[in-house]
Amino acid sequence: MAVKIRLAQRGKKKTRTYRVVVADARSPRDGKYIEDLGFYNPHDNPSTVDIDVEKAISWLDKGAQPSERAQKILEISGAWSQWRATKGEEVVIPEPPEPKIKSSSKAHNKQEEEVSEEE
Questions:
Q1: What CATH fold (topology level) applies to the domain 3-118?
Q2: Where are the domains of the chain?
Q3: Are 111 and 105 in contact (CB under 8 A)?
């Protein structure tokens, strides 16, 4: 049985949140799953990621294959680097991205003007 770590959608349209789950590869996206590892909310700024790292590492040790998006979320939570480190590989822990700021916002433009005046 092929086991995958992947995302399952929750919530209404336009306000989706995602559960990070371990499921059989043949089961539907939002169908039955084996275990729940945590959640991911992309609507917060910055995005909210809450993963049970110990459970994720144990499933990776058992051979579960993460999807591309699930692997990125595991990297953000630190579970991926811990799992790779247990295998003897050197892993660089990535830094979180800086918050996005709209360059056209008035507050951002005003702040840039203040900074340039101080210099």
A1: S16 Ribosomal Protein; Chain: A; (3.30.1320)
A2: 3-118
A3: no
Dist. CA 100–CA 42, nearest whole Å: 13
Q: How confident is the model at residue 22 (pLDDT cuts 50, 70, 90)?
A: very high
* Alpha-carbon gap, residue 50 to 82, rounded angstroms: 16
pLDDT (tens digit per residue) in 59-103: 999 888 999 999 999 988 888 888 888 877 776 666 767 776 666
Under the banding of pLDDT at 50, 70 and 90, the label for residue 118 is: low
In 1-119, where does DSSP find H-type helix?
53-61, 68-77, 79-86, 106-118
- Exposed (0-12), middle (13-18) or buried (19+): which is 114, by Cβ within 10 Å? exposed
Rounded-to-integer distance, Cα 41 and Cα 58, Å: 23
**Interatomic CA distance for residues 13 and 114, integer angstroms:** 40
Cβ distance 2 to 27 under 8 Å? no
